[in-house]
């Protein structure tokens, strides 16, 4: 049974039990209710007539009682509190999704408004009053016309030109709409606006940083030229649907990226770049072909990036990860693999490096933790640890006068690892040494330095290495000390002083442009002695860098030649 019917039956039974007093009271209340109901209906009728007179199609809202209004306010308040709590508990990802959705809805509404504005503002549409050819009918019409046209290109052009020239104004307009003859500037402008609009709508779809950057680059092409033509800018924006603020310089110009709080400071970045370019860590490539448009000279690292990174962390308070350290390497500083030829190397350092390669190969399988990084690492393992805030080891340790350190530390480290055993294979290593050989031309025995391969037990290799490390410790210290002093001298240049960098270059061979075959084996040589002079200018105090090349027929590279050349250089500078 329906609830309303059930309720009516119950009230009917209930009313039979009422007293006369209750019945009179109910009648009075019914009169009041009906009076209010008639007043409310009268008001609704008046409002409806008013809205009809004003052509208003809004839905008529019923007049609410105070109780109903209070309930509605309570419900809205409850909803508002619930919404505030819901927004407070939203995650960052959910908030971003909601913002993206709202932006997409607003963009769609804006696009519709712009389209309506464009249709009103740029009335470029051509009213078609005639029927247009279907595809098949157009093909047949073109075929019939072409059949009657002359075959000769010159005659064909004359006939077509005459047809266009003698056509009626309406046909001329139709030809212009098809882009034939002389298309109007208005049609060209419409096509341009349409292509710009389509391209911009495609770029609007992208949400990534790269796609947003491309959109700004696209708009920057119009921003500069339209800034000088405000009237045309208004037409352009209405026709393409691009808002004016997107063509402003503030929007188009690239904004600097926000720096992270934990980002590496500029001071540290500059310090790392100078660290890479230091003469101690990298050598300058003396080849003008290596210099590019930026006019920066190329450098090649003299040690591995891992060794440099360890050295940086020891010498500096700012600790960097290895990946970040490698990332900060300047582009004009190349790794060791980019060096074509390794020539004029130190014999002592090279022999130690060759032995370390052999030892690392021997230790790779069973004892990888004992491997050496480079010759500096091998020397450091034979010395006492550095003191805090000290750049070098103690001088007694370097000169092998310390009783607590020495090559014995390295021997103890390899105790039990490189012992002679019956089943242990021999080790191969290389070294540079003086070799006696026969000159095939003169048939005389001569001596020269050559890389040879040696084979023996691991203990022999270790003993050779330990003997060479005794001398290598002061040798590396002196080389590094001299490099640092020279670099410091170039930075803080003393008054009334000249710093010279001199060396003998390879002798230059002289030959004629037109020479006979026999002269090929009897060329004259010339000594070339380059010199780089650094001194402080007496006028402005800046450091002047001059290159002086001395050319001489004296082929003896001795101390007398150097003394004569230096006198000439000093007198010149």
UniProtKB/TrEMBL annotation:
<keyword id="KW-0175">Coiled coil</keyword>
<feature type="coiled-coil region">
    <location>
        <begin position="34"/>
        <end position="73"/>
    </location>
</feature>
<protein>
    <submittedName>
        <fullName>Uncharacterized protein</fullName>
    </submittedName>
</protein>
<feature type="compositionally biased region" description="Basic and acidic residues">
    <location>
        <begin position="1"/>
        <end position="31"/>
    </location>
</feature>
<feature type="region of interest" description="Disordered">
    <location>
        <begin position="1"/>
        <end position="32"/>
    </location>
</feature>
